[in-house]
Amino acid sequence: MPTLRTQATAEGSPVCSSRDVTIVIPQHNRFDLTLRAISSFREHHGRDVMICVVDDGSNDGLESIRATLLKLDVRILQQPYQGVTAAWNCGWRACDSRWLVFLNNDSWTTAGWLDRLLRPLQNGDAIMSSVGWRRERYLPRALEHMRRVGLMLDGSCFAIARENLAALRGFDPAFRLYFSDTDLQLRLLQQHGRFGTLTAVANLGLKHIGHATTRDLPGRVTQWRSDHAAFIAKWSN
Question: What residues have CB less than 8 Å from 13, skipping those under 6 apart?
């Protein structure tokens, strides 16, 4: 059974050097969202924090914003279209920061939030922290104990120590677009048992549109069904 905790941490000194953390932002088209996500983050956190954008096979337009991204001190990685799971894996494997934050490109910053998100990890109170909880309705029957709780961390913005992610070999590539963050949380809990705490940090200065990138993808429903079938098969034993 996971330890479910919501923290409302107080403001204080930064939990780590800005160069100890990398923000990984996957994108597939919708460059307007990516630029807003990065510009608003820079506005409230400055330019010292490393940002890595992983372009997941965008159809066009990347070259038109490349110069702007570089001016915002962004590292750009490119891969053929493979989905967000592969983009996350590409991003964290290219980084050597102690802390990793995975941020959806359809999110924007309204106030400083990074230190508060990282503090539970730095203090040893959590293995993974996020901006909130979501109710997971699609767990297999084998996870009946989890089904009763039904809560998993929000995947739109979450943080984890690189060493903990590397120990699990990153995100499972069996899932292309969906369930890879849920699978990661289950594996963390499986590895760390009752000491593997998942923590949501309340009232961070971050807004999320939700599905702004994926809603227009062709074959989205089919991909969800495929990923869900793979997820159920993996966790039904």
Answer: none
Q: Using one digit for the tens of pLDDT, what is the confidence trace for 87-134?
A: 999 999 999 999 999 999 999 999 999 999 999 999 999 999 999 999
DSSP string over the chain:
--EEEEE-PPP-S-SS-GGGEEEEEEESS-HHHHHHHHHHHHHHH-S-SEEEEEEE--SS-HHHHHHHHHHTTEEEEEE-S--HHHHHHHHHHT---SEEEEE-TTEEESS--HHHHHHHHHTTS-SEEES-EEE-----GGGHHHHHH-EEE-TTEEEEEHHHHHHTTSS-TT-SSSSHHHHHHHHHHHHHGGG-EEEEE-S-SEEE--STTGGG-TTHHHHHHHHHHHHHHHH--
Question: pTM, whole model, 2 decimals?
Answer: 0.89
